[in-house]
Amino acid sequence: MKKLLFRNVLYAAVVATLILTSCVSQKKILYLQNEAMSDSITSIEYQNKRSFDYKVQPGDNLYIRVSSMDKNFSEFFNNTGDRMGSYGSSSNSSGNPSIYLNGFNVSDEGTIDFPYAGKIYVKDLTIDEIQQKIQTIIGEYQKETIVYVKLGLFNLTILGEVARPGQYQVYQSDINLFQALALAGNATDFGNKKNVKIIHQTTEGSQIVRVNMNDADILENPQYYLKPNDIIYVEPMGIKRYGFTTMPYSTIFSAASLLVTVLTFLLVTAK
């Protein structure tokens, strides 16, 4: 009887230990830890100069607008001049096909087909370089014109342990990691924020980098600002298979009650 009692107590202790160790600690959930602040310091600045030097690649979509004193000249390039309205009608959202349809798609050869100028090679050029190149070409046909160039679509793919995985189109020149995760409803409690993968598209193929979003030093990391067509993958923590995001008090109380009942029964039977 004593052996049976010892076995049951040991079993209950093992179950309680598994429950307590299967909870995800706050240290794995919280963003921006280890910031160098003390009680006498209420703010701290992290240096990370924002520079948008993305080089356009095949498949990108460019918004190009030509402004001129000659209204007919402007409308010829701008397709009735409606592009600016469609471009500015949405922000941080997806599903606006007018931006894609009114933009200029970069072909597999790295060119765009632009009125008057024909095919213009834009691959591996920055937005500013493309703007200057088109400005020079248009200036040969019409003086006193201004050319505006922007990325028509900033595509992001967010996968893994997030609330709403999927592909997102962002209508702004740049976006950081936290803004991207906010689009997908934030990472779940089981997301491994210490080891978030970012997959960049490069001229040679793809590049994988890993960042630690638990550490405040991410604010100074060059990977903090994303690039068009980036893929963000939030890996699940290994504890997800059997873990809890919060302490399962009801389960613990139920197990404790069951243990007390079993022990009482054994003690009574032993007598």
Brief write-up:
By secondary structure, the protein is an alpha+beta fold. It is built from 8 helices and 10 strands.
What is the topological layout?
Layout: H1 2-21, H2 26-29, E1 61-68, H3 71-78, H4 83-87, H5 97-102, E2 104-105, E3 111-114, E4 118-121, H6 127-139, E5 145-151, E6 154-160, E7 166-170, H7 177-183, E8 191-201, E9 206-211, E10 230-236, H8 249-270
Helix pairs in contact: 1-8
Verbal overview:
- There is one protein chain.
- The protein is an alpha+beta fold.
- It has three domains: 46 residues; 111 residues, Outer membrane lipoprotein wza fold like, CATH 3.10.560; 91 residues, 2-Layer Sandwich (wza like fold).
- It is built from eight helices and ten strands.
- α1 runs antiparallel to α8.
- The longest helix has 22 residues.
Q: Main β-sheet, in a few words?
A: 5 strands, mixed
Assigned CATH class of the largest domain:
Alpha Beta
Fraction of helical residues? 25-40%
| Molecular shape | elongated
Based on secondary structure, the structural category is alpha+beta
Following the backbone from N to C, one meets helices and strands in this order, namely HHEHHHEEEHEEEHEEEH
- The CATH homologous superfamily of the largest domain is named Outer membrane lipoprotein wza domain like
Task: Kindly report the CATH topology of the largest domain.
Answer: Outer membrane lipoprotein wza fold like
Number of strands: 10
- Cα-atom Rg, whole angstroms? 29 Å
Q: Which key terms come to mind for this protein?
A:
single chain; alpha+beta; Outer membrane lipoprotein wza fold like; wza like fold; 3 domains; five-stranded mixed sheet; 10 strands
